Amino acid sequence: MNLLKELPRGVQDYLPEECGVKRGIEQELRKIFLSNGYREVATPAFEYYNVFSGGIGSYKEQHMIKFFDRDGRILALRPDITVPIARMAATSMPEENTLRLFYIQNAYQLFDGNIRQKSEHTQAGVEFFGRGGSGADSEIIALAIKTLLSLGLRDFKVDIGQAGFFKGLIADSGIGEERAEELKNLIDFKNTVELEYALSQMDIDAETKKKLMALPELFGGREALAFAEELAAGELCEKALENLREIYEMLCDMGYENYISIDLGMLHDIEYYSGVIFRGLISEVGFPVLSGGRYDGLAGKFGKDRPAIGFALDLKRAMTALDRQGGLKTEQREVIVVTAEKKAAGDGARYAEELRSRGKTAVFEIEPDGAVIEEYKQDRCVSQIVKICGGGTKILYERGAI
Q1: How far is it, in rounded angstroms, from Cα 341 to Cα 365?
Q2: For 335-398, CATH number?
Q3: What is the pLDDT of residues 12-49, one digit of tens each?
Q4: pTM exceeding the 0.85 threshold for the entire prediction
Q5: Number of H helices, E strands in the chain
């Protein structure tokens, strides 16, 4: 098979129009994050494998793209961006207790045919180090909402859950780590049939089974929190609910009540989340447009233990949602083509530069033949073709002219 004209599975080219849209969204995201006090950082595309091993979830670990350096050490293309930034913040910025950082970078993974994620995808996100508690949680979730609104998205919901509530329910149940991971996935996907069967095979008390079966349906507003109070078992559950109540009330006070929902059956598969977790959902896209949460224990892995919370937005999914909602803006700059004979190349180049200095887009061609001129005339971006001759200018083509 000749692969010279093929792309590997799970990656794509961005042609000029789509690439322009993507860059425009990235520019808007930078503006949002900078205006909220976040500073941009970047990390390498690959790091040592053990930076990522343990903590990013079984799916990402199994689908890492790994290779060796010349000393035989295992390297991996980053499947996750939060982990490298936690590493960077701990090792390169340890003296700063409070850090507000943002990034726009690609993440990578092996493509297994699953449509949930491509092999290469661009994420834009923020990480807030040094603040624990519901105030910082509310700041980040509010920024996530503002980000979606600033991009022009509408009719979305940010579902908010708490990793501690599930951990509290199973704390004294005797459920092992492997079975807990199975239950998390079933609850997260709202698969109540398989969940009921899995629980029937476990030697745990009936009350715990009943509470776990209730989780997939435990979503809504204040009423969901009220029902969750009846299920709460122990201090871990109570602290999780107190955190959620405070976040919910603060976000409502900020005017975001219509954009948020409580979902205690939402359980990310990423292991480093320790507190509040959330996802941005839009009906036009079958997967979360953004996701995030609190990960207080992650930074300590790299030698600087401090609380942290953040989120990441998937640019391709955001673009798809905007397109399907009719809000995708494609910017087409008008192009003026300047032509000149060889002996007038200097005059032509200077004329094109003058146009560019005035904010115009100018292409300079030296002695293009008739076929090239006709090609430019068919280009919908070309508004005018000008020929420099005898110290003056001659308009060869102007869009709309008869």
Answers
A1: 9
A2: 3.40.50
A3: 999 999 999 999 999 999 999 999 999 999 999 999 99
A4: yes
A5: 14, 16
